[in-house]
Amino acid sequence: MKLLLFDIDGTLLHANGSGRQAIEQALSDVFDQPISTEGVTFSGRTDPGIMRDILTQNGVAATTSNIARAIGAYESLVLETGDPNDVTLIPGVPPLLDRLSSRSDVMLALLTGNIRSTAFWKLKAVGLDPHFSFGAFGSDDGERRNLPPVAVRRAKKHTGHTFVGSDVVIIGDTQHDIQCGRGIGAFSVGVCTGSYSRNDLSSYNPNVLFDTLQDTDAFIDQVLGG
């Protein structure tokens, strides 16, 4: 059995800048000063890491308490007032997940820097939430390299199966997705549907690299062996 761990933003869907806007609004309100996210990289990073950099850049102490306040304010804003229309599917994703979900030799899960609640809010906005029941999230650990073991432990609880080495497949659109599973020997799949080009991602030597996820047969052949 294979454990397929999907990133969310840039891999399954696009939030189209709504995340930055929500963070700026939420943090400006909670810290009572204008907050800008300009120059802070979001792609492939965890929400705690992103918040730490935003706070530091805006002259707010990036303490554990302040990072938690920032995440809490952002979470509340998204869950209470977020517009699902801001989120769009990446072409090819629904048929791929439908096909994978029908297989008995595959378990689908998430590996994302989003905190759990906003991860599932985004997935629900585009109808992908039924495909995923668990995963590893930025709310579990602020360091992405620590998330694959979390996902593996949860997968064992769900399936009773121990996933090791290349049984674990991590699919994502950034170098962070490609690199984070190397500590457990995971199989990496890069996809050029985010902000990184084929040249960018190929330099990190993923096991497989796709321009898009629109060719379901190619994904199954190259990742699952048919």
Features:
226 residues, alpha/beta, Rossmann fold, DNA polymerase, domain 1, globular
Derived structural class:
alpha/beta
Q: How many domains?
A: 2
Query: Are there runs of 5+ residues with pLDDT below 50, and where?
Result: none
Write out the strand line-up for the largest beta sheet, numbering strands in chain order: 5-4-1-6-7-8
Query: Span between N and C termini?
Result: 13 Å
What is the CATH topology classification name of the largest domain?
Rossmann fold
The tally of helices reads 9
Characterize the biggest β-sheet.
Answer: 6 strands, parallel
| Beta-strand share of residues | 5-15%
Q: Indicate the radius of gyration in whole angstroms.
A: 17 Å
Work out the helicity level. Answer: 40-55%
- Name of the CATH architecture of the largest domain: 3-Layer(aba) Sandwich
Number of strands: 8
Shape: globular
CATH superfamily of the largest domain: HAD superfamily/HAD-like
Q: Mean pLDDT, as a whole number?
A: 96
Secondary-structure element order, as H and E?
EEHHHEHEHEHEHEHEH
Report on the architecture of this protein.
- This protein has 226 residues and is of the alpha/beta class.
- It folds into two domains: 2-15 and 87-224, HAD superfamily/HAD-like (Rossmann fold), CATH 3.40.50; 18-84, DNA polymerase, domain 1.
- It has nine helices and eight strands.
- It has helices at residues 18-31, 47-57, 64-81, 93-101, 116-125, 147-159, 175-180, 198-202, 216-224, and strands at residues 2-6, 13-14, 88-89, 106-111, 135-136, 168-172, 187-191, 208-210.
- The strands form two sheets. Strands 5-4-1-6-7-8 form a six-stranded parallel sheet, with helices on both faces. The chain has a two-stranded antiparallel sheet with strand order 2-3.
- The model has no long low-confidence stretch (mean pLDDT 96).
